[in-house]
Write a structure and sequence with these properties.
single chain, three-stranded antiparallel sheet, 3 helices, alpha/beta, about 170 residues, 8 strands, five-stranded mixed sheet
C-alpha cells in the first residue's frame, strides 16, 4: 500500500516509532443493501474501504474521496457510525495508532472496480454471503449497519477485543 508523501517524510524522521494517525472507513451499501468490500493488496484480506486523512481534510470529505479513489463508486454519507483507536504494527516495524472514524454510506453512482493499487479486488456482498472478515472489520460493519442516532465508541475502562488486532500477525512477510 503506498504511503502518502507527507507520511513518508514523517517516517524518514522518526523511523518506526509510534504515530497517531487520523483514519476513516465506510460501510457502503448499494440499493439492494449489499456491502462494498475491497481485498487489500497488503495482506489479501477483505475489508471495508478505508484510508488516512490528508492535511486539512475533514473526515467526511476523506471517506468520500477514499471510496471514489479506491473503488470508482460515488457515495453519500448517511450517518456517523463509530469512532475508535485501532493499534497496528506493520511487518517493517512501523507502529501506528489510527483514530478511525467510520461512516455508513450509500452508493449513488459509479461502478465498483479496482481503481488503485491498494486493492486486488472490489465487490458487492450480500450480508449472508460475506467473505471472512477480521474482528475489527466486523465491529465496524455491525455498528455501521445498526440503526440508531448515536455513533458507536469504545466504552471507558472496557477494552474491546477487536481493537487490539495486530496487523503484523496477519501479513505475509516476503
Amino acid at each position: 500500500m503506498p504511503i502518502p508523501p507527507y507520511l513518508r517524510r514523517i517516517r524518514d524522521r522518526i523511523g518506526h516509532d509510534l504515530l497517531l494517525l487520523p483514519g476513516v472507513s465506510a460501510v457502503v451499501l448499494n440499493d439492494t443493501d449489499q456491502i462494498l468490500l475491497g481485498k487489500r493488496s497488503d495482506n489479501g484480506e477483505w475489508s471495508l474501504i478505508a484510508g488516512v486523512l490528508e492535511p486539512g481534510e475533514q473526515p467526511a470529505e476523506a471517506i468520500l474521496r477514499e471510496i471514489r479513489e479506491e473503488t470508482g463508486v460515488e457515495a453519500v454519507i448517511e450517518r456517523l457510525a463509530g469512532v475508535a483507536l485501532h493499534p497496528v504494527t506493520y511487518p517493517n516495524g512501523d507502529q501506528c495508532h489510527y483514530l478511525n472514524t467510520w461512516f455508513r454510506c450509500r452508493a449513488v453512482g459509479g461502478e465498483a472496480r479496482v481503481n488503485d493499487d491498494e486493492s486486488t479486488d472490489v465487490g458487492w456482498f450480500a450480508l449472508d454471503e460475506l467473505p471472512e472478515l477480521s474482528p475489527y472489520t466486523r465491529l465496524r460493519l455491525e455498528t455501521g449497519l445498526a440503526d440508531g442516532p448515536a455513533a458507536w465508541f469504545a466504552e471507558p475502562g472496557r477494552p474491546h477485543p477487536a481493537l487490539t488486532f495486530d496487523l503484523a500477525s496477519s501479513l505475509a512477510l516476503p
